[in-house]
What does this fold into?
Amino acid sequence: MIQIKAGCTMFEDIKIRGVDNLLALMEKFRNDPREQKVDLVVGVYKDDHGDVPVMRAVKQAENHLFESEKTKNYVGIPGDAEFRALVPSILLGSQSPLIEQNRIDCVQTPGGTGALKVACDLLNYLKPAIKIWVSTPTWANHIPVATDARLTVDQYPYFRSADRSLDFDGMMTHLDEHSKAGEVILLHACCHNPTGVDLTLDQWQQLTDFVRERQLFPLVDCAYQGLGDGMDADVAGLRHMTENLPELLIANSFSKNFGIYRERTGALSFVCESAEQVTNTFNAVKTVIRSNYSMPPSHGARVVATVLNDSQMTAEWKAELDEMRSRISAMRSALRSELEQRGIKEDLSFLTNQKGMFSYTGFTPEMVASIKDNYGIYMAGDGRINVAGICSGNLDYISDAFASVLD
It folds into this structure.
């Protein structure tokens, strides 16, 4: 046995922060030996066979790239130029005056999480330890990303558990009483994760007025565009905000609406008051990226650009995205109907009112544990489920499980 002399010790006093609870649940699900088990945890789209499919247009694009790609050179700090040219139109619409005025630009990032990390690092670079307001609840990784970037995190009310809906009055009252000029507010563009409860367009308009008057700075997380009501409808509120505020950041992901989760394809867009400020911000963002991951990967961005620059592939992608959105909506309706047929008397309208892949069921930790222990159905500890994990083959089984704790 090799004898190692005493020296510098770095690892012996590590304090384990712990793995994201959702990731830990995924591991427990994989290790569960039961043949009949259901994963409602992982936030990925699944088809009616329970598979995570490769979209048809994506496969066409990949075949094209396989034949045509001639280099594996770096794509540069800001990422793929063709991809970057498309992102503002996807978010704001091709006719947006901000595009014509050169008031928006973007960089490619490793997924939506990479965009959020770059955004938070940029904010800390500009105003060290600036406060960022996040909703209660919010995506499990928002607060760790923000705190690791040394931002100061505070929370505003959002979800009202009594009726599983939006507490807009509570949200606005809290922000009015506690937020200060210059602070950051993190918003979900659509399909709020984890609740599935979204702001209406009228509420976006009211919030925009408040943000402008209070002089808050918005960071908008747009991870699920296209999976709520449609590519344009899902960002109507975001578009209103960008057209009526001088500055904001948008972190968006193509993992969900292109089904390219493992390709880590996202973007960070920045809207500024002038074209000159866009250039300055672009250079600042590049500095942040260089000391982080240096340059993004290529493949996912090339897939997105290839699809969107080919009319046939774009039409195929839009058709399949419509199918995905319709399937999610159908599963919401089917689950509600099955539970009502089982005699559940409480109001289940939240299942069809919430949008996107996630639903906040309102199940207590004890109810979640009972469903997992007795049926092998896994969901987040706060009762969040991925509706896309429901399919015709497990709908009855899930309905029986849910009814067992709702009776």
The longest strand covers residues 104-110. The CA atoms of residues 191 and 226 lie 9 Å apart. Residues 74-309 form a domain with the Aspartate Aminotransferase; domain 2 fold (CATH 3.40.640.10).
